[in-house]
Amino acid sequence: MRHSSLGGGAMTRLVRMEGIDKVFPGVKALDAVDFDLLAGEVHALMGENGAGKSTLMKCLSGVYQPDGGRILIDGKPVSLPTPRSAQDQGIGIIHQELALMRDLTVAQNIWIGREPRKSFGRLDEAKLNADAAAIFDGMNVKMDPRTPVSSLTIARQQMVEIAKALSYRSRVLIMDEPTAALNDTEIAELFAIIRRLRSEGVGIIYISHKMDEIRQISDRVTVMRDGTYVDTVAAADTPIERIIAMMVGREIQHSDIAIPDLSGAETALEVIDVSRGAELKNISFDLKQGEILGFAGLMGAGRTELARAIFGAEPIDRGEIRVHGKPVRIASPSDAVRKGIGYLSEDRKQFGLALGLDVRANIGLPSMGRHSDRMGRINEGKLSEVARSYIDMLRIRTPHDAQEVRLLSGGNQQKVVIAKWLLRDCDILIFDEPTRGIDVGAKAEIYRLLADLAKRGKAIIVISSELPEVLRVSHRIAVMCEGRLTGILPGGARQEEIVALATKREGKTAA
Amino acid sequence: MTAVDTTTAPRPSRRGTAHQKLLAFASLIALVIGFSLASPNFFQVSNIMAILQATSVNGVLAIGATLIIITGGIDLSIGTLMTFCAVMTGVVLTWLGAPLIFGVVAAIGTGALSGLVSGTFVAKMKIPPFIATLGMMLILKGLSLVVTGTRPIYFNDTPGFDLISRGSLIGWVLPGFPVPNGVLILFLVAGFAAWILSRTVLGRYTFALGSNEEAVRLSGVNADAWKMAIYALSGAIVGIGGLLIASRLNSAQPALGLGYELEAIAAVVIGGTSLAGGRGTILGTLIGALIMAVLTNGLRVLSVAPEWQTVVTGGIIIVAVYADQLRRGKT
């Protein structure tokens, strides 16, 4: 109803961006980028991390000001000096890192800045909630507008963001990696909403790294690389390999996993009957030197909880952990590091990086002892040399090793975390979603790195929500469901076997 | 369309701090019962009134502090601002001989103006609140001494000024309930602040700023202007605190003030408002201020040395915040 005026105009060009430039200190983030969006289409925007997708969209949503080029809306040049001015032009954005106020309710979040008022600045709470409810009705989503946002799942919070964008009567909806934290059911719900909006004439810009999603949902694909425009193609008749090649500028070769013979290898880690509350129930497994053990399962299956328990970040109620055959009590993460266990958190910003420090310092953080003298003075030259070798090895895109980590793109930040633990030379490494938000080209390198590390005798645990990734890297695959280890499969197991174990609820047998 | 009943709409503050408030309230009751059993002199009307009277200044200051803390900020200038407001009242009433009402306006206006200045430092100049208000604390302390020439200003020429705090409007209407005006003013201020927080746009943005300032900005709200408004309102409330202390002492003491900000922040924290911002209640702060007053009074009734009272107050703050941590189940 709110988009009725645009319903029929499938060919209406809503947005045109021409020759957009954007310069940040030390980086040309956008170089003469073109982009356009039609009414009633889903236009995927793809590119490796640091390609400039988010920057381009921030220019369109009034967060950044372009240094060159122009933006046309409905054929007329506009300037978008503030987020508010973009909203007034009907441009809504759902940020990658959700921009909600957790302590406020759903309705309060949606109408922030535009609260219906009574006299004396009083809020009209009834109208606020009723208007929010009407938007959710239009989206066909069940949601109590009075729920505090902090009690919602990420997927539900995303619905709130979409409702908020729609509340501006947006004709252009920008979604920056909306499915990054969603499970399959939630993704299906999101896609249903996207399709409904598209049929109502909304133009949707969809940023994602997931190829299968792009094929499912988008009409056209625009690819960016290193801050430049590469090409725009129709999604239906472009092979995925070609899109990837456009993104990385080269072809990726796939290789099957070679499972090494580990019969003579020493056992590095044994987990025996470990339990905590309802999160971990009687988990037992072992891990050999030179082995990569993948952990598959749905979100909330307890994989991260298990990793944090092994790493000493959270206590265990019962059970035993042995490192190289010796029972150990791991009371804290620093305890774990001393015993040779390294952990790469899935949330790199919160747990993995000191954002204000430079690349060199971040890489060296856990290994300062080896790069300083007895007086505690840091050998900057040595540290810089080592850091540069990892920057080369992992192809971390940074002007130099003294760049602050917060200025790097997400994927490059993740590479810094990996470099940190590689340098620390831990012999048991736990990777929790090692390629989350990382581009296709870098993923292949990280897989190769994991294999190299295993060859050098490291014992490796890889937790991943992407089944193809688990299959790609694992020598064995452990599957968890609702806090229990439901089975361990050999590498190269069939996808269906893993899914059956991942959904094997207590008291039921797998179908 | 679903009809939504506004009376059941949750205030954003209520959920997160309900337990803490209950805990704080239970502690308050326990303290009152404990002291009553320990000493027959404690639970007397005159002593209860003394406790309430003692709560009034710290309570009003703590309400001002609550507003700032909910935005995720902190205000260290509260104590010396209180004094400066009292001094300005003295200037207007005693030196200029203006009518009483101008003294009231001077206190509240000085507070609001100073809050606006702090708010400008924080919102426009992006100085961290701790630093901005630390600077204001010293500036205001110095100004009080400069203006008065370090000598107290007495209100002997302004009849009725002491009644602002010490008179009892309620006792005059309802003999037998000699609630001092200072306490009445505390509750009026509390009611007003609670209304602002729960019912008005300003209150909504107070919570929103503390919850996710960037999100507020991205929503197209003029976050800076609203933040300055909150600091100004907080300053005005501190101005009322300045009026109360001047009335109670019947003088403006320029050397007074330092340390009051910490007592106010302590009351806020004991009342369950999160220093991280986004959550907090005025009721919690009132209970927090009462706990501190009951403790001080009770220990005095039991003849505990004042030095030890301070030690106990400090311990209570640690215990209150630790209890909150335990409840959240995080370290």
TrEMBL record, chain A:
What are the GO cellular component annotations?
plasma membrane
Topology of the protein relative to the lipid bilayer: Peripheral membrane protein
Q: What SMART domains does UniProt report for this protein, alphabetically?
A: AAA
**EC numbers, comma separated:** 3.6.3.17
InterPro entries listed in its UniProt record = AAA+_ATPase, ABC_carbohydrate_import_ATPase, ABC_transporter-like_ATP-bd, ABC_transporter-like_CS, P-loop_NTPase
Is Acetylation one of the keywords UniProt gives this record?
Answer: no
Q: What name does the UniProt record give this protein?
A: Galactose/methyl galactoside import ATP-binding protein MglA
Organism annotation = Palleronia abyssalis
Automatic annotation (TrEMBL), chain B:
Ranges that cross the membrane: 48-69, 76-95, 101-123, 130-149, 169-197, 228-246, 258-276, 283-302, 308-326
| Keywords carried by this UniProt record | Cell membrane, Membrane, Transmembrane, Transmembrane helix
Annotated localization: Cell membrane
Q: Which domain of life is it from?
A: Bacteria
Per the record, the major location class is membrane
Q: How does it sit in the membrane?
A: Multi-pass membrane protein
Coiled-coil intervals, chain numbering: none
Q: Note the Pfam families from the entry.
A: BPD_transp_2 (PF02653)
Give any Gene Ontology cellular component.
plasma membrane
Q: Which GO terms describe its molecular function?
A: transmembrane transporter activity
Q: Which InterPro entries match?
A: ABC_transp_permease
> Do you know which PANTHER family this protein is assigned to?
ABC TRANSPORTER PERMEASE PROTEIN YPHD-RELATED-RELATED, RIBOSE IMPORT PERMEASE PROTEIN RBSC
**Name of protein:** Ribose import permease protein RbsC
Query: Could you tell me which species this protein originates from?
Result: Palleronia abyssalis
Lineage of the native species?
Answer: Bacteria, Pseudomonadati, Pseudomonadota, Alphaproteobacteria, Rhodobacterales
